[in-house]
Amino acid sequence: MYLHWFLYKASGITYFFTSSLTSYYSNITNTIIITMSTKRSADETTDATTDVVDQQQTNGSDDSHKKQKSEVARTSSKLEKLAQVKKDLDVKEWSSNVTLEELLTSLLDKSERDAFFVADIATIIKQYQKWIKHLPHVTPYYAVKCNPTQGVLKVLEALGTSFDCASRNEIETVLNLGVDPSRIIYANPCKQISALKFARLHNVKMMTFDNVSELEKIEKFFPEAELVLRIAPDDSKSLMRFGTKFGVHIDDCSDLLEMAKEMNLKVVGVSFHVGSGCFDASAYDAALEMVKSVFDMAKTHGMTLNLVDIGGGFTGSDDVMFGKFTDAIRNKTKELFAPDVRIIAEPGRYFAAMSHVLAVTVISKRIIKQEDNRQHPRRTSNNLRQYNYYLADGVYGSFNNIQFDHAKPTPCLLKPSHKQPTPCTLFGPTCDSIDVIARDTQIPELKIGDWLYFKDMGAYTMASASSFNGFVPPPIYYYCSEIDTSDL
């Protein structure tokens, strides 16, 4: 009996310990399983996150690689086009150890003319590089009217710039270069009907307007056009002002937008021009504020605008002023407009002015004595003689920029002289008395056959030159000075 009781108790204790140990190890096992499961889940999540990050990094790396590859391809394409342009224009290399005077002198015997241009295409390329550095978000539409020569146009086309055309002939000239119509803005607010028809025929859609009559013409002859409303900003801070001829007053913009909508015409943006020779960067701030107000007006008419044209007039030679302008433009456009709004500009002289040098010879000379008041009433206190020099080019030719562009060309001696400067007047070759290049300037005495040269003669010179009196415009010789093209 005791034995049975002992065995019973023993079996109970055994069962208790067995059950407890089973339960204990079961809990431990479950805990381990749960812990391992949780860790596995966490590891899987981590792995998944890592995979996503890795994929994003891979995609980012791929995008960066594609972008870099695309940039390399674009640069390569530009260099190939420039190489072809050099062949087409017979461009000669200009070594850095050859001075401008030496280069011009080397051409005197080769040229059968008494005046000629030297154009350095590297100057145009450098201006393009400076533009994309300071205004990378602004697409330049070169103002063809500034210098429509094949040399300038071909170089800019090879660089990928777009074009601002003001007439049928300019549009046709640019199209003949192989430029896509989408890279042209017909930026003349008052267009000829024949030119409108030509633009429609060749799908040149983007064009400016600033009056009701223009809308009526466009509705009739080119209703698919993409219109840019030209406004009249304050251009009082510029030497050459355009507000009296072009641009609608801000108070009349809403009515024009409403009329365009009623005619089912598509207005895509707003343009302005602060004037050429602008000397105050704040002009761009004020003009862009006006543009933004027109964007807001358009919204009230159910229209969405997506383009801003900031015009031209940019200086090419004053880097300090150019920097001030571009700083103002970058900051103000970023402040006022969404990233998807296109910003374009219409630079002309910026690209062309410094690229050309004009060399001219003295074809005649006249001595004016102090006491001869009938010939020259201006007296000098030091009893020096005065001279009239007659040059092979004048205001009816390349120096028309004096009349039309407020230019003040400065004569430079091709050969150095030890003589003292004397008062003189420089005349052009025609029989018209208004053909005066410079009055009361001072240079060392010259003789017939001597040469002078004038820098910065690429803008608004040959573009307006005539053959008045039979004096034809000078030829152009193309050169390319040394330049780094790796960042095109």
How would you characterize this protein structure?
Helix 1 (2-89) packs antiparallel against helix 4 (150-159) and helix 3 packs parallel to helix 4. The protein is of the alpha/beta class. It is globular, with a radius of gyration of 36 Å. It has 3 domains: 1-89; 148-347, TIM Barrel, CATH 3.20.20.10; 354-481, Lyase, Ornithine Decarboxylase, Chain A, domain 1 (Beta Barrel), CATH 2.40.37. It has helices at 2-89, 100-108, 121-134, 150-159, 168-175, 193-201, 212-221, 253-262, 282-300, 319-336, 349-352, 401-404; strands at residues 92-94, 115-120, 138-143, 162-165, 184-186, 206-209, 226-230, 266-271, 307-309, 342-345, 356-368, 386-391, 412-413, 421-427, 436-444, 451-454, 476-481. It has 12 helices and 17 strands. Strand 3 (138-143), helix 4 and strand 4 form a beta-alpha-beta unit. The strands form 2 sheets. Strands 1, 2, 11, 12, 13, 14, 15, 16 and 17 form a 9-stranded mixed beta sheet that branches. Strands 5-4-3-10-9-8-7-6 form an 8-stranded parallel beta sheet. Its cofactor is pyridoxal 5'-phosphate.
Fourth-tier CATH superfamily name of the largest domain:
Alanine racemase
Reading off the top of the CATH hierarchy, the class of the largest domain is best stated as: Alpha Beta
- Oligomeric status: single chain
Q: What percentage of amino acids are in beta strands?
A: 15-25%
Nearest-angstrom radius of gyration?
36 Å
Q: How many structural domains can be distinguished in the coordinates?
A: 3
Show unreliable segments: 1-25, 31-36
Tell me the CATH architecture of the largest domain: Alpha-Beta Barrel
Structural class: alpha/beta
Q: Name the overall outline.
A: globular
The count of β-strands is: 17
Give the overall average pLDDT: 86
What is the terminal-to-terminal distance? 110 Å
Number of helices, where a helix is a run of at least 4 consecutive DSSP H or I residues: 12
Profile the largest sheet: 9 strands, mixed
The CATH topology of the largest domain is TIM Barrel
Q: What's the SSE pattern?
A: HEHEHEHEHEHEHEHEHEHEHEEHEEEEE
Domain Orn/DAP/Arg decarboxylase 2 N-terminal: 122-353
Subunit structure: Homodimer. Only the dimer is catalytically active, as the active sites are constructed of residues from both monomers.
Catalytic activity: L-ornithine + H(+) = putrescine + CO2
Protein name: ornithine decarboxylase
